[in-house]
Amino acid sequence: MTMTDDDIIAFIENFKFGAGPVAVERRNRGFTLIHAATGYPVARLRPIGRDDLVDILYWSLWKERWVPFGPFGRTAAPVKQAVRIIAEASIFWTGV
């Protein structure tokens, strides 16, 4: 069963991130995760059109734009797995 936009937003906002609460905004073709206390962009999830798969991106301080996460470029995962990856990988929390 495919998650709706509201389901995705609710899941992310209710997820217990170790670095603190995260707010979610629906922007363009995806979801932007923002650290609730600092306003820092944490991650971006962009649906790729198959099931609940999303591309995972992080905000690059060096490039000043969203860039793909992963050792070989693009990383796609189901929404729930993507959120767990974001919670555990330090690259998403460098500016917080």
Task: Describe this entry's structure for a reader.
With 96 residues, the chain is an alpha+beta fold. It has one domain (5-93). 21% of the residues lie in helices and 35% in strands. It has two helices and six strands. It has helices spanning 5-14, 79-88; strands spanning 22-27, 30-35, 41-47, 53-60, 65-68, 76-78. Strands 1, 2, 3, 4, 5 and 6 form a six-stranded antiparallel beta sheet that branches. It starts with a helix and ends in an 8-residue tail after the last helix. The mean pLDDT is 91.
Q: Which stretches are poorly predicted, pLDDT < 50 over at least 5 residues?
A: none
The number of E-state strands comes to 6
- What is the terminal separation in angstroms? 34 Å
Shape: globular
Count of helical stretches: 2
Q: Cα-atom Rg, whole angstroms? A: 12 Å
Q: Level of helix content?
A: 10-25%
Give the overall pLDDT as a whole number. Answer: 91
Strand content: 35-45%
- The secondary structure category is alpha+beta
String of helices and strands: HEEEEEEH
Layout of helices and strands:
Blueprint: H1 5-14, E1 22-27, E2 30-35, E3 41-47, E4 53-60, E5 65-68, E6 76-78, H2 79-88
Antiparallel strand pairs: 1-2, 2-3, 3-4, 4-5, 4-6
Which structural traits does this protein have?
alpha+beta; 35% strand; 6-stranded antiparallel β-sheet; 96 residues; globular; single chain; 6 strands
Please provide a brief summary of the model.
The chain has 96 residues and is an alpha+beta fold.
